[in-house]
Amino acid sequence: MKKKREINILDVVIAGGGPAGLSAALVLGRSLKNVTVIDDGRPRNFVTAASHGFLTRDGIKPSELRKIAHEQLTKYQNVKITEDFIEKVEKKNNVFITTTKSGKTMVSKKIVFGTGMKDHLPAIDGLQEVYGKTVFHCPYCDGWERRNEPLAVFGNGKGLLPFIKLIYNWSEDLIAFTNGTADITKEEKQELIQHNIPLIESPIIEFQSTKGNLDRIILQNGDAVRRKGGFWVTTNEQQASMIPALLGVPLNENGEYETGDHGQTNIKGLSIVGDAKNSFTSLIGAAEQGYEIGVKINGELAEEKWADKLL
Ligand SMILES: Cc1cc2nc3c(=O)[nH]c(=O)nc-3n(C[C@H](O)[C@H](O)[C@H](O)COP(=O)(O)OP(=O)(O)OC[C@H]3O[C@@H](n4cnc5c(N)ncnc54)[C@H](O)[C@@H]3O)c2cc1C
């Protein structure tokens, strides 16, 4: 008689090994769960040399934060971290079947997506060189380092003025660049004048810099404007993984996955945490969400184990 092949069912597969995914892995590992983290090593913050605002880790290099997390997780032999890319996830008979680019297949009771977002900045010469060095999106992450400097604020539409008010907290020497005709009201233009903030509408054709330090912004009208740094209102972020959407998880108008309080979704057993859920969570926020979902999932697995013995 042909022997039936034993399938190893993992407790949890974690898609994405950023702070959200690794934090979930730590809680679940400490809860004796068999966990595999699958990560292809392309987080959105790798362009930056230092991360700020994570208590005890202020100023740390993103790769160093990851290295410490990996080192600490090696203690938990029930947690495996695999460098790979998840191509497909199916849900069949109450389990999740995950297939990776290298051809591996994993079966799990639960799956957590901490796959994050990807930024899509406009294709302007020299922008990639300065983004993450002196030009950023998040003032809580990088505003202090740029305090009181001559800064640019890039953006347009109704989000521009609220963002300028925020950046004004770190520097009052601001110039607003709408990179095309300004789509703001007369009253908003008046407020900018009252705060001595020039508004430049000419399209940007180049960012000139030395070793990532912004020097001049070159405009289509021929002007060159000196600025030492800047902040973008939006980086047009989009989901790094559309797999949850393909499984039926809805996206909201900001392109974030819609979830319940802890990250549970309308697909039972599938949770989403970190930037994929809140578009710009921060490192500590993503880690906190990973912790919460880890606790939630362990609670569910404990209930399920208990109920199995009652049958
Ligand atoms: C320029 C910049 C600077 C920042 N600075 C700071 C800062 O100073 N302080 C701060 O708190 N926050 C900062 N942030 C924000 C912070 O990086 C994010 O909020 C945080 O990384 C979100 O964590 P996450 O785990 O949700 O996603 P991520 O850290 O983006 O991790 C997601 C992981 O999932 C992997 N992945 C995606 N799809 C797949 C797939 N299909 N298969 C396998 N793996 C996959 C990716 O490769 C990645 O490793 C910054 C962001 C940027 C862009």
Mean pLDDT reading: 96
Rg to the nearest angstrom? 23 Å
Indicate the CATH class of the largest domain.
Alpha Beta
Count of discrete alpha- or pi-helical segments spanning 4 or more residues:
9
CATH architecture assignment of the largest domain: 3-Layer(bba) Sandwich
Give the cofactors and ligands.
flavin-adenine dinucleotide
Percentage of residues assigned to helices = 25-40%
State the secondary-structure class. Answer: alpha/beta
> What name does the CATH topology of the largest domain carry?
FAD/NAD(P)-binding domain
What's the total count of β strands? 17
Summed up, the domain count is 2
CATH superfamily caption of the largest domain: FAD/NAD(P)-binding domain
Unreliable spans are: none
Give me the strand/helix succession. Answer: EHEHEEEEEHEHEHEHEEEEEEHEHH
* Main pleated-sheet profile: 7 strands, mixed
Shape: elongated
Strand residue content? 25-35%
N→C terminal distance: 30 Å
